[in-house]
Amino acid sequence: MSRLRIYEDNKHEAPVAVLENHADIAAALHAVGVRFEQWEAGQPIAPGATQDEVIAAYRTDIDRLMAENGYRSVDVISLKPDHPDRAAFREKFLNEHTHSEDEVRFFVAGAGQFTLHLDGKVYEVLCEKGDLIGVPDGTPHWFDMSESPYFVAIRLFTNTEGWVANFTGTDIAERFPRMNPHASAGQTSEA
Asked: Which residues contact 178 (CB under 8 A, 6 or more apart)?
């Protein structure tokens, strides 16, 4: 189940709000300029589908976002718990950073946790199958795929070479919960 937990940025012990209804999550994130949608495949996707087959299943929504926001490229990324470089990939995204373009991810399968730092608050967004998140350029955030990652995600880019992380140099991400793959869906562990 998708979830949004909102914290004061100086108090990681307990969230000030927890939302699990998709419409409530979307409204709260929209209020701070973040896109959150749910998509459904336009055609069945078989396990092990190719990148082209995955993109074709969501082509209508992809084309809509590309037209609305000027995205110029799309790809599919997949990561499983047995990937030999999973720890290095996870570490790459765990510190607070920004990008000079939007970070747009749609979860075809699995889950990932985006955490955004905006206006004195921290917004921890657990994205699961069917969720799209659009983090605007310049937004301080971090991403956790857990120690045992599993996700298939569609990514949209303005820059055809992909995005580059610009790290803020703060340690705020270390003070907030990490994604816990061993807990039931929708739970995280404390850092």
From this structure: 94, 113, 144, 146, 188, 189, 190, 191
Amino acid at 57: A
Sequential pLDDT tens for the chain (191 residues): 999 999 999 999 999 999 999 999 999 999 999 999 999 999 999 888 999 999 999 999 999 999 999 999 999 999 999 999 999 999 999 999 999 999 999 999 999 999 999 999 999 999 999 999 999 999 999 999 999 999 999 999 988 766 788 999 999 999 999 998 654 344 444 43
pTM score, whole prediction: 0.92
Fold type of domain 3-169: Jelly Rolls (2.60.120)
- State the Cα–Cα distance between residues 191 and 174, nearest whole angstrom: 7
Amino acid at 9: D
Domain ranges of the chain: 3-169
